[in-house]
Amino acid sequence: MIEVRVNGRLRRGEAEPRLLLSDFLRHELGLTGTHVGCEHGVCGACTVELDGLAVRSCLTLAVQADGCEIRTVEGLEWGRLQEAFRRHHALQCGFCTPGILMAATDLLARGPVTREQVVDLLGGHLCRCTGYEPIVSAILEAAG
Amino acid sequence: MKPPPFLYERPDTLEEAASLLAEHGDDAKVLAGGQSLVPMLNFRLVRPTVLVDINRIAELGEREDGRVGATVRQRDFTGNRLVDLAMPYVGHYVTRNRGTVGGSLAHADASAELPLCLVVLGGEVSTSKGRRVAAEELFISHYTTALAADELLVDATWPEGDTVGFEEVALRHGDFALSMCACSLRVESGEIRSARVGVGAVVERPLLLELELEGAPATAETAREAGERAAALVEPPGHLHASSAYLKHLTSVVVTRALEQAL
After folding, report:
1. What is the DSSP string of A4-70?
2. What is the predicted pLDDT for the residue at B32?
3. Model ipTM over 0.85
4. What is the pLDDT of residues A63-118, one digit of tens each?
5. For helices A80-87 and A97-109, what crossing angle results, to 10°?
6. How much of chain A, in percent, has pLDDT values that exceed 90?
7. What is the DSSP code string of B83-152?
8. Does B92 touch chain A if contact means CB atoms closer than 8 Å?
9. What is the spatial distance between Cα A13 and Cα A74, in angstroms, rounded to a whole number?
10. Rounded Cα gap, residues A35 and A41, in angstroms
């Protein structure tokens, strides 16, 4: 049994040691906004915030998150970033979007960003719909 | 794509971690950032019976100038000039939030950037057995270090280089290097006085090359010739993505570019 604070709420759930944080969030807590693509850290779809930093939930064991703060895409407030994604058509099927929103939120929280940093960030996220350029534009617009 | 079952231990002190490793030996694996180990677990390429999670051992997360604790996150390791050049090539932005400096060293992937940097800088690591191991003796081969099964990497000491350069070519941004070069040169009055030039990915461990650059003029021509000599010194086996000849060519390119940066 582990205890985590997810999107501000204290949650408990069963977690055998080999359970990935991504599967804990989806299957134990029902938070299916966090998507699972590759399960080896390449696609970025499962990115969540763990104690304030964006991490791959498929490369973190649920037991490691015991006692930690987690924010998933369900816990993101609707704001400039999502509006910019809509305006720039930065998603089509939406599979990659939760992970990219979480990673971009981490980047934007660190202060002013350059196009180069956004491109570097997206190097860790696979999107098969957009060709990335609309996502770059959306994140830069949200950065102001 | 899910890890096989294992027992999970989360010691709070270095002593507890060392005794767990002593108890379980080869059956145990140390879990630091998990950015290489967890994919290998997910693929079931490794099947440890016990994972020893060292993330909550406070002293391993400490940093004092050039001495960097094992669980310092890659994103937090800034301020060493060569490492600052290499770090953008280490995994991805998000994996650097979690991946650790010590984990990358102890994992000893031959195409990893941090082991190559530590060798070129002439750094060393200290271990839970009180040993200090020079970087050149630490890396033995693919995923193999001089650390014993029950020995934990505690910290690494990273000297500042002289003037430094780093260059890498990979298939995709953030992917494993096909070839890479790190160098640290001392240049005085237009002449190279000392040079440490190392390559990775095309060798089974980070390797310093004998390029006999001392006394050579600090010019683009010197960098180009050194690249050609470097290519002749490595014999990488070809693989799915690149033939041996192409990897040798890439090695000449990255060595030349890294030296040009430093000169």
Report:
1. EEETTEEEEE---TT-BHHHIIIIIS--TTS--S-SSSSS-TTEEEETTEEEEGGGSBGGGGTT-EE
2. 97
3. yes
4. 999 999 999 999 999 999 999 999 999 999 999 999 999 999 999 999 999 999 99
5. 130
6. 99
7. HHHHGGGSS-HHHHHH-BHHHHHHHT-TT-HHHHHHHHHT-EEEETTS-EEEHHHHEEETTEES--TT--
8. yes
9. 18
10. 12
Q: Is the pLDDT of residue B65 over 90?
A: no
Q: Render pLDDT for B137-176 as a digit per residue (tens, 0 to 9).
A: 999 999 999 999 999 999 999 999 899 999 999 998 888 9
Candidates A138, A137, A130, A122; CA nearest to A84 is A138
- The arithmetic mean of pLDDT across residues B79-84, rounded, is 97
For residue A15, the chain B residue with the least C-alpha distance is: B8
* Backbone φ and ψ of B208, nearest 5°: -80, 135
pLDDT at B129 over 90: yes
Considering only the beta carbons, identify the residue of A17, A41, A58 that sits closest to B8: A17
CB-based contact (8 Å) between A121 and chain B? yes
Residue B1 has pLDDT above 90, yes or no: no
CB contact under 8 A, B93 and A121: yes
Say if B222 is an interface residue toward chain A (CB within 8 Å).
no
Q: Which positions in chain A touch B75 (Cβ < 8 Å)? A: 53
Per the CB < 8 A criterion, the answer to whether B179 and B50 are in contact is: no
Q: Least CB-CB distance to A103: which of B2, B3, B94? A: B94
Q: Do B34 and A61 touch (CB under 8 A)?
A: yes
Q: List, as own/partner pairs, every contact residues A25-29 make where C-beta atoms lie below 8 angstroms and the sequence separation is at least 24, other chains included.
A: A25/A57, A25/A70, A25/A72, A28/A62
Q: Number of helices (H) and strands (E), helices first, in chain B?
A: 9, 14
CB atoms within 10 A of CB B229: 16
Shortest Cα distance from A34 to chain B (angstroms)? 15
**Six token digits for residue B239:** 């693989």
What is the reported pLDDT for A15?
A: 96
pLDDT of residue A4: 98
Q: Which residue is it, tokens 């060493």?
A: B80
The answer to whether B252 and B228 are in contact (CB under 8 A) is yes
- Write down the mean pLDDT value for chain B: 96
Residue A22 at interface with chain B, using a CB cutoff of 8 Å: no
